[in-house]
Specification:
The complex is a heterodimer of chains A (120) and B (952). Chain A has 120 residues and is an alpha/beta fold. Chain A contains six helices and five strands. Chain A has a single domain (3-119), classed as Response regulator (Rossmann fold, 3-Layer(aba) Sandwich), CATH 3.40.50.2300. In chain A, helix 1 packs across helix 6 and helix 2 (34-43) runs parallel beside helix 3 (60-66). By secondary structure, chain B is α+β, with helices and mostly antiparallel strands. Chain B is elongated, with a radius of gyration of 83 Å. Chain B has a ten-stranded mixed beta sheet with strand order 16-17-15-14-12-19-18-20-21-22, with helices on both faces. Chain B is 58% helix and 16% strand. Chain B contains 27 helices and 22 strands. The chains are: A alpha/beta (120), B alpha+beta (952). Chain A binds chain B through residues 9-10, 12-13, 15-17, 19-20, 33, 54-57, 82-84, 102-108, and chain B through 584, 587-588, 591-592, 594-600, 602-603, 606, 620, 623-624, 752-757. Chain B: This is histidine kinase. Chain B: Its main location: membrane. Chain B: It is found in: Cell membrane. Chain B: Its EC number is 2.7.13.3.
Chain lengths: 120, 952
């Protein structure tokens, strides 16, 4: 069973993502900030991390930077962000995110995207 | 008569030579004569001595010879030896020779006789005696022999012998005599020589004296004559002229010379007189020239002043000095009609000041018409001074007129006794015209200078930095603003600055050296009609952003320079930055709730969900929609306020009512207890209620938001400095010191972990500030990180302080205990009513609607009394609070008043020793009365003790 970690400081959004991806055969975990996320990935292995960009303490990018290198090989990262400008997208992909999705997003699209990522 | 060598005969040299020669000759002759004489004397004496000696020798020889003869004769006689006879004969012969010699000598008479006898003897002896003797010998007849021997021969011999003896004696005497004579002679010679020498010396002296006399005397005469001529006398040199020697010639020449000198002297004297005359004339000319020169110099000075002086006073002084030099006034004054510029001579300050600006109208008109005129007046006797006779004074009036013929300056001057010539007046008028031009020049200069100064001021006071650069790139002008912007510290100011210098400055200063330099270079060189611009930034201290515009300056279609205008756009830039940040923030803030709305809606539409889920989603959607609305409202508010479109509906407002309302609004906060401490006696303000509520909600909302771990939020009202001061204090995370000043900037949120989580638009404080400022108040923040934050704002009071209160309990306050009354009441309108009443009496009211919080507060704050409503809520009612208060030692002595709609519960009242039980409704004054009695009560049921003397 694929494991997904949802990192977002907004509880509502976390709930939305988790609810969207439930019943699809994934094991879903939530983290409310970067620190918790890093703690969780160090304790357990995940296949996908859905990461918010604008978070207190550590931004999404900073979370990626703190990830151990070997983990980056196995862990796919989908960056969700409200910063939708093209420049941001570029920066985010350059900084090591594997996928990019802007807020607001369609849950249907998210499901498709996640399935695509995890089936590859 | 022709004299071939007159000098040879007459010359002094020849005379001298002749005399010398004569002298030498005389000397030589004398010496020679003397020498010969001495020599001959010596020779005669020598001869005499020699002859004496010769005679003596001869006499000796003769004696010897006789003796020999006799010896030989006796030998023969005795021995008859023929040899003896031969020797005898020889001796006789020898004797004869000797006699012959003797005879040759000079002989005295006696000697002559002796000689004759000797000759006789010899003859006799030879011829008679000897042959007889020989014969006797031969005959041996000795008797005859003896007889013969004694026959007289012996007499002769004896005679001779005595003679010789005598002669010898005589010879010695003679020799002595000769010697003595020789010595005497020598002495004589010496004497003669001495006399001769003396004589010669005397002669030489005489001759020398003569010669010298002959030579020196005329020279002395000549010297005297020269001296005489030098002093102008003439001495007759008659005697000398006659002489034919050198002195004669010299005297002649001298006389000729004297004559010629005398002639020339006359010529020279004439010439000299002429020269002296010429010199006098020259001197005269020179002094005239000197005078002219001085005048010229003064004139030059004046000209210089007229041309270059830009100071009116200086110019006036220069002109005045010049005029006085030329015209030699006794008293004079020169003044300008405008500007209090004047100069005077020979006048007291008082009269000068009187004269300036008090020009007689008639004179003024005359001056304008005639330019210059002279008034002649007789000096009044009092003013004559030491002068005996009366004389005239000449008052000169002269004017300087401008090009329009208006009087600009007036010159008044007086000369005593000396009238002005027409030439003088003419010169003066000419000068005045020139002065007029000079004044106009100064006026023009002042005008130009004023406008230049104005321009400079304008340029310097413009906010934009202005830089005028020549076509070659050098800075011609730079204003203060630019200096300030580019921090040039006068380095580029003043003189022209070369392109290289200022470009280098910009290169080191700006963050974009290359772009900026190439912009400058292009703008300087290229011809362009439009305006070009570029932005650069300076990152020293705080970053500054500057936009520089370049515009070409043309003169007659030809580019002469470039103007660069540097505009500090830091503020605009920051606003830009903030706006783009805002857009970013807004985008994020909007997208987040929108994501929820969109996502959950989609889930609702696409998924089959249980009804509870559906409800939960719909609630979430609703919540997020409200969040969106708030956000949008905030944006709109700030937008409206910024553009000044916000309308304020100002009305008189009781702030405590408002505050209680706010407390009520937040009563359901889970983790936060919002309560009110009302210490304000004057609560009326003029305000827009809606906006003020917005401020309260923002600030209390922030207080709650930024104390995520819960805690008290205390709203305090008090009067400070005639203002109503509100503070909202939380126990939250606080704000770092450095960030406090930035808090009121729009869109500013403190970037730390706890704050990011809190979210928000970052507009709340900006909006609040905007509103408070519009109300004439101030807003500020005190905070310490981790210790909580207090936001203060104040508002001007709306009406006069309330008056006519019956009791003012604050008079009783000793300043330490405070006059706090706690009201625990959930009915806000009643709480407000009560607190109004209590405050009007001077109490400070602390309002709580939550008994739990009320109790906590009671532990901290000293209280006069607690007013408790019994019906407070489910968790804890009034009696529970009473019980808690009474059971806690710290609060057990606080007087308690029950304010309830319920009937008095006697049991509890007694049980808890309740001071007063009010059944609603009751007049609020009753409450304050009872509280005052608590204050006054000596028997301190509460923990409030008052000094007796303060009682009323």
């Amino acid at each position: 069973m694929k494991r997904i970690l949802v990192v977002d400081d907004e509880e509502t959004l976390r709930m939305l993502i988790c609810d969207t991806l439930e019943d699809l055969g994934y094991e879903i975990d939530g983290a409310e900030d970067g620190e918790e996320a890093l703690k969780k990935v160090s304790q357990q292995s995940y296949d996908l991390m859905i990461l918010d960009y604008m978070m207190p303490n550590l931004t999404g990018i900073e979370v990626i930077e703190h990830l151990p290198n070997e983990m980056k090989q196995t862990l796919s990262i989908l960056m969700l962000t409200a910063r939708a400008q093209e420049a941001d997208r570029q920066v985010i992909l350059e900084k090591g995110a594997d996928y990019f999705m802007s807020k607001p997003f369609s849950p249907v699209d998210l499901i498709k995207f996640v399935e695509e990522i995890l089936n590859v | 008569m022709f004299k071939p060598f007159p000098l040879l005969e007459k010359s002094i040299r020849n005379q001298f030579l002749k005399t010398l020669m004569t002298l030498i000759v005389v000397f030589l002759i004398t010496m020679l004569t003397f020498f010969i004489y001495v020599k001959s004397s010596n020779q005669s004496l020598q001869k005499e001595r020699d002859s004496v000696r010769e005679k003596a020798v001869l006499v000796d020889e003769l004696e010897e010879s006789i003796n020999e003869i006799f010896f030989r004769a006796r030998g023969y006689y005795a021995f008859q030896n023929d040899q003896e006879l031969n020797l005898l004969n020889e001796n006789l012969e020898e004797f004869e020779i000797l006699l012959g010699k003797y005879s040759e000598l000079r002989l005295t008479k006696e000697e002559r006789e002796l000689y004759n006898e000797l000759v006789d003897f010899h003859k006799n002896y030879k011829t008679i005696i000897l042959p007889k003797a020989i014969s006797f010998v031969k005959a041996n007849d000795y008797a005859s022999l003896r007889k013969l021997s004694n026959s007289g021969t012996n007499d002769l011999v004896n005679k001779f012998v005595s003679y010789t003896k005598a002669y010898k004696k005589k010879t010695d005497v003679d020799l002595n005599q000769i010697f003595t004579k020789t010595i005497e002679q020598a002495q004589q010679f010496t004497l003669i020589a001495l006399i001769l020498s003396g004589l010669i010396l005397f002669l030489v002296t005489v001759i020398m004296w003569r010669v010298l006399y002959n030579l020196i005397r005329p020279i002395e005469q000549l010297t005297t004559a020269t001296n005489a001529i030098a002093t102008g006398r003439i001495i007759d040199l008659g005697g000398l002229v006659q002489r034919e020697d050198e002195l004669g010639i010299l005297t002649n020449s001298f006389q000729n010379m004297t004559k010629s000198i005398q002639e020339k002297e006359e010529v020279l004297t004439t010439q000299n007189e002429e020269l002296i005359a010429q010199q006098d004339e020259l001197q005269e000319n020179q002094s005239q020239l000197q005078h002219s020169l001085n005048q010229l110099q003064k004139y030059n000075q004046l000209n210089h002043a007229l041309t270059f002086t830009l100071n009116k006073q200086k110019l006036v002084e220069n002109i005045h000095e010049y005029l006085n030099y030329i015209h030699k006034f006794d008293t004079s004054i020169l003044y300008l009609l405008e500007g209090n510029v004047y100069v005077s001579k020979g006048l007291t300050n008082k009269s000068t000041e009187h004269l300036v600006g008090n020009l007689d109208e008639n004179k003024r008109v005359r001056l304008e018409e005639e330019q210059s005129f002279v008034i002649t007046r007789e000096v009044v006797p009092e003013a004559q001074g030491i002068a005996q006779e009366s004389y005239y004074c000449y008052d000169l009036y002269s004017s300087v007129l401008n090009s329009e013929g208006q009087l600009v300056a007036v010159m008044m001057a007086t000369r005593e006794g000396y009238p002005y010539s027409n030439q003088e007046i003419e010169d003066l008028n000419g000068l005045m015209n020139r002065i007029s031009i000079a004044f106009e020049r100064i006026l023009m200069y002042e005008e130009v200078e004023r406008s230049r100064q104005l321009n400079q001021n304008i340029i310097d006071n413009v906010n934009e930095g202005i830089q005028l650069v020549s076509i070659s790139g050098d800075i011609i002008l730079i204003n203060k603003a630019l200096c300030r912007i580019i921090r040039c510290q006068n380095r580029l100011e003043g003189k022209t600055t070369s392109q290289q210098t200022w470009l280098e400055h910009f290169q080191t200063l700006s963050d974009q050296p290359e772009e900026l330099t190439s912009f400058f270079k292009k703008a300087i060189i290229e011809n362009f009609k439009d305006t070009r611009k570029i932005r650069y930034s300076i990152s020293q201290d705080t970053p500054v952003f500057i936009e520089v515009y370049a515009t070409s300056v043309y003169e007659d279609m030809e580019k002469v320079g470039t103007i660069f205008v540097h505009r500090d756009i830091t503020r605009e830039y920051e606003v830009d930055q903030m706006k783009s940040e805002l857009v970013s923030t807004v985008s994020h803030e909007l997208r987040t709730p929108l994501s929820s709305v969109l996502g959950f809606t989609e889930l609702l539409l696409t998924k089959n969900l249980k009804p509870e889920r559906q409800k939960k989603y719909i609630e979430t959607i609703h919540k997020e929609a409200i969040r969106l609305t708030n956000l949008i409202n905030d944006f709109l508010d700030i937008q409206r306020m910024e553009s000044g479109k916000q309308q304020y509906n100002m009305q008189s407002l009781a702030i405590d009512e408002l505050a209680i309302e706010i407390v009520n609004r937040f009563r359901h906060e889970k983790n936060h207890h919002v309560h009110l401490v009302d210490k304000a006696r004057h609560i009326n303000v003029k305000a827009d209620q809606e906006r003020l509520v917005q401020v309260f909600i923002n600030l209390v909302g922030n207080a709650i938001k930024f104390s995520p771990n819960g805690g008290d939020v205390m709203i305090s009202l008090e009067n400070v400095n005639e203002m109503l001061q509100v503070s909202i204090k939380d126990e939250g995370i606080g704000i770092p010191k450095n960030d406090i000043s930035n808090l009121f900037q729009k869109f500013k949120r403190i970037d730390n972990s706890s704050r990011r989580k809190i979210g928000g638009t970052g507009l709340g404080l900006s909006i609040s500030r905007e509103i408070i400022l519009k109300h004439g108040g101030e807003i500020w923040i005190e905070s310490e990180e981790g210790q909580g934050t207090t936001v203060y704002f104040n508002l001007p009071l709306g009406n006069k302080p309330l008056s006519g209160q019956t009791i003012k309990v604050d008079d009783l306050d000793d300043g330490q205990i405070g006059l706090n009354v706690m009201i625990v009441e959930d009915d806000l309108s009643l709480a407000l009513l009560l607190s109004e009443e209590l405050k009007s009496k001077g109490f400070t009211v602390i309002h709580h609607n939550d008994p739990k919080r009320a109790f906590e507060d009671a532990l901290r704050v000293p209280l006069v009394g607690v007013v408790i409503d019994l019906m407070l809520g489910d968790e804890m009612n009034g009696w529970d609070l009473v019980q808690q208060l009474k059971e806690t030692s710290q609060t057990s002595r606080i007087p308690i008043v029950i304010s309830s709609a319920l009937d008095e519960a006697k049991e509890e009242v007694e049980k808890f020793k309740i001071e007063k039980y009010f059944t609603k409704p009751y007049p609020p004054e009753e409450l304050s009365k009872i509280l005052v009695t608590f204050l006054l009560s000596k028997s301190s049921n509460g923990n409030v003790i008052f000094p007796e003397e303060k009682r009323e």
